[in-house]
Amino acid sequence: MIHAIVTCPDETKEVLANELRALGARDIDLRYRAVACVVEDLETFYELHLKLRTASRIFRVVKEFAAHDEKMLAAQAKRVRWSEHFAPERTFIVEGVPADRGPGVMGSNTISKTIREALQASFAQHTGKIPKVDLKEPKVMVVAFIQKGRCTLSLDTTGKTLHKRGYRTEGHPAPIKETLACAILDLAGYDGTQALLDPMCGSGTIAIEAAYKGLRKAAHIHRKKGEFGFEWLKDFDNSVWRKVQDRVRGERLESLPAPIVASDISPKYVEMAKQNALRARVERDIEFKVGKIEDARPHAETGILIANLPYGARLAKGEVEALTKLYGEIGDNLKQNFKGWRAALLAAEESPWKFIGLKPTRKFNLMNGSIKAKLLIFDIYAGSKKKRPTDR
Predict the structure, then answer these.
(1) Would you give per-residue pLDDT tens digits along the chain (392 residues)?
(2) Cα 50 from Cα 58, distance rounded (Å)
(3) Which of 26, 162, 238, 346 is least surrounded by Cβ atoms within 10 Å, i.e. has the fewest?
(4) What Å distances lie between residue 97 and 106, 271, 363, CA to CA?
(5) What CATH code is carried by the domain that includes residue 33?
(6) What is the domain count for the chain?
């Protein structure tokens, strides 16, 4: 069994917990900005790294123990047979994470230094060799999280953070993280079988992540060899890893069950979204258009519209009225033209979102970077409720 801690924004940990359950993890425990779980074997553990869409990082727990001071921390860390986890030829780094504040609390530098010295002492004792620290590109990252006198030692098996899919380029002034886009898709009830429209697609992240989900394409299937942290550990099993990769690739559908359309008022951003979709290898699965959100029209009888609405921070001073007018026009368009659809709109908490003029079915508090936001879900009925998009 492997004990893991998977991190994410605190607002989306329930979404992540559902993902973990669906992939076979058990003993789910929601924590602050993380979900702890247990997986039965390496195959499942590797699969989490390929498929998780809303996770930021995955940590494999090595040991948990009481650590009320530096002496206890050093003694317990030295007892770990670190040479059983990675070879002395691998470079490493230690990240100390203190959850508490106040007098007498060990700081991050103290924690890191104590663990590093204990780890190197353990290697010297058991192998006669000492691994080197690499602050820039270490192969192994050890994380020591201390809260209320208890330390959790773990290995970061992720490598680069999971929100970095590798397909997006810089250039859009207000990009949305891939992991947040996936959380929004899940909260909106998108399961890949409904038609989807993003009429403010920007760099295309929401549409691309929707295509991945609809195609059952693993979020991180295009990562290169050696980019996951677990590939540098002693128990890395390349045969199991290749088996998991082959099976996951075979799960991809040939085509989407329902069409995805992405549009934006800016031709520049539409072209950017196309290029990102090309790098994500889903360019043929998304129809791109240039157009205003207030002029958008449905491309199916029912479906889900998702949009990351412009924030007041994006507008020049004195243009709040323009934002209010836009929100009203969006609401009018939804009421008049999108009956039978569900709309999921991400709006800044301080924006005039009430001028949309529709009563949300549900609301979720989220963070878009440093901006407090609300995900507003509107079910726009037309006659029978049977036309409502299917909930997850």
Answers:
(1) 999 999 999 999 999 999 999 999 999 999 999 999 999 999 999 999 999 999 999 999 999 999 999 999 999 999 999 999 999 999 999 999 999 888 888 999 999 999 999 999 999 999 999 999 999 999 999 999 999 999 999 999 999 999 999 898 876 666 799 999 999 999 999 999 999 999 999 999 999 999 999 999 999 999 999 999 999 999 999 999 999 999 999 999 999 999 999 999 999 999 999 999 999 999 999 999 999 999 999 999 999 999 999 875 545 556 778 889 999 999 999 999 999 999 999 999 988 999 999 999 999 999 998 899 999 999 998 643 444 444 44
(2) 11
(3) 238
(4) 9, 41, 33
(5) 3.30.2130.30
(6) 2
Q: Are residues 203 and 348 in the same domain?
A: yes
pTM: 0.92
Indicate whether 17 and 116 sit together in one domain: yes
299 lies in the same domain as 336: yes
* Residue 272 and residue 168 in contact, taking contact as beta carbons nearer than 8 Å: no
**Domain of residue 343, residue span:** 178-216+253-387
Residues 12 and 130 in one domain: yes
Domain membership flag for residue 294: yes
Of 156, 191, 224, the domain-final residue: 156
23 with 40: CB under 8 angstroms? no
At 19, list the tokens.
């993902």
